[in-house]
Amino acid sequence: MPLALLALAIGAFGIGTTEFVVMGLLPQIAGDFGVSIPTAGLLVTGYAIGVVLGAPLMTALGTRMNRRTMLMLLMGLFTAGNLLSAVAPGFGLMLAGRVVASLAHGAFFGIGAVVAADLVAPDRKAGAIATMFTGLTVANIVGVPLGTFIGQALGWRATFAAVAALGVVGLLGIARLVPQLPRPEGTRLRRELAAFRNVQVVLAMAMTVLGFGGVFAAITYIAPMMTTVAGYSEGAVTWLLVLFGAGMFLGNLLGGRFADRRLMPMLYVTLGGLSVVLAVFTFTAHSKVLAAVTILLVGALGFATVPPLQKRVLDQAHGAPTLASAVNIGAFNLGNALAAWLGGLVITAGLGYTAPNWVGALLAASALVLALWSAALERRTPARAPLAAPTAVPVHH
Predict the structure, then answer these.
(1) Which terminal residue of the chain, N or C, has fewer Cβ atoms less than 10 Å from its own Cβ?
(2) Is the four-CA dihedral 345, 349, 355, 358 of positive or negative sign?
(3) What is the end-to-end Cα distance of the chain in Å, rounded?
(4) Does residue 87 contact residue 75 with C-beta atoms inside 8 Å?
(5) Given this model, what pLDDT does residue 386 score?
(6) Residue 231's CATH number
(7) pLDDT tens digits for 345-359?
(8) Residue 80 lies in a domain
(9) Contact indicator for 326, 59 with CB cutoff of 8 Å
(10) Is the C-alpha dihedral spanning 271, 267, 143, 11 positive or negative?
């Protein structure tokens, strides 16, 4: 494994921790700022919207510089945003810090996925992307539970200060381990935008929004759902997040392995399974044991879609993958924002803390329909001539 993949995974670990840790701390943050839990859920929505906006914006800015420098700048921005969240005197500034940190997220994973894919042979690209995303899944096994524990023991501000320190470690790792890859010849914003004329790229991104949105509909409100419905203690939420992270880790590895062999069948199985499991979660949430098993399955099925969806976009974008890759990361977070908002709506409407699971099931089922449609279109459409590939860049391992 190229050491550069390890550096990318370190950065992904920091970003994954800050993205997901807030969900275990929503009750404390809401209490400190005197806002409702659905209002505190805006910290998830705001972060996700920042990723959606930041992915194309930061990637477009990055087309004028080499990829390692851009990755380092993104980690610096991420660190600054988390520091702002840690010291914010009011909910508005806390939310602003989340948005600042999130601006780096989409471009980091988008550019990082392209770099990871370029470091390995063509038949190992999805596996390399999955290796980078392993940092994100390990964050959910180690970083998020540890951050939740720190937040419950020392206050949530300590958690965000620790995440800012992780950002510094990620920046140093990229500076030391990622090779100095020059910007590929012919990389221009207009060329990158041309990839979006391909309906398959757009469909893959829509699948990403709906499929991953299904996961977040349930997981955003996991703390109040598990404490008020399943009967878990507040401290047990940490271990439930460990389970979710373990599921993500396993699903990501499986997704990376099978996406290089049978990409579309992998999507059918994972999206269909996710829809069923989320619907069942409405009932299993009332049992401690069954709720724990369901959380593991939601993590596994949800993250098994990540490598195949990201590879689908890279394949369909042909010779101009950077912006499309970053925008697809934004699509994951658009799904997060949509799901957190819809989940908050059904809770506010008085339907209870399990109602977001039905929202998630419908979103995942919609993604499955789009996957079937995409495959049908592909069977009927002659192979599309790829854009001329950019000049090859020598990679130094």
Answers:
(1) C
(2) negative
(3) 9
(4) no
(5) 43
(6) 1.20.1250.20
(7) 898 888 888 888 999
(8) yes
(9) yes
(10) negative
**What is the chain's length?**
397
Spatial separation of the C-alpha atoms in residues 69 and 60, rounded to whole Å: 14
For 40-74, the DSSP string reads HTHHHHHHHHHHHHHHHHHHHHHTTS-HHHHHHHH
Domain total in the chain: 1
pLDDT confidence of residue 365: 93
Encoded tokens for 203: 């469909």
Residues 6+ apart with CB under 8 A from 265: none
- Counting as low any pLDDT under 50, the low residues of the chain are 186, 384-397
Burial class of residue 142, CB neighbours in 10 A (0-12, 13-18, 19+)? middle
Q: Note whether 113 and 136 are within 8 A (CB).
A: no
For residues 27 and 35, what is the distance between their CA atoms, to the nearest angstrom? 9
Cα-based angle 279, 285, 288 (whole degrees, multiple of 5): 145
Distance CA 354, CA 339 (A): 13
Does residue 12 sit within a domain? yes
- 180: how many CB neighbours lie within 10 A of its CB? 9
Q: Which domain holds residue 160?
A: 3-183+195-380
> Which amino acid, 252?
N
Alpha-helical regions (H) of 260-287 = 263-284
pLDDT at position 193: 66
Using the Cα atoms of residue 34, residue 39, residue 44 and residue 47 in order, give the sign of their dihedral. negative
Per-residue pLDDT, 318: 67
CA gap 176, 7 in Å, rounded:
8
Type of residue at 263:
L
| Residue 184, helix vs strand vs coil | coil
Q: Is residue 394 part of a domain?
A: no
| CA gyration radius, the chain | 20
227: Cα separation from own chain's centroid: 25
For residue 385, tell me if it sits in a domain: no
Q: Which residues of 262-288 are buried (b: 16+ CB within 10 A; e: fewer)?
A: ebeebbebbbbbbbebbbebbebbeee
Strands (E), 46-202: none
CA 57 to chain centre: 18
Tokens of 109: 């994973």
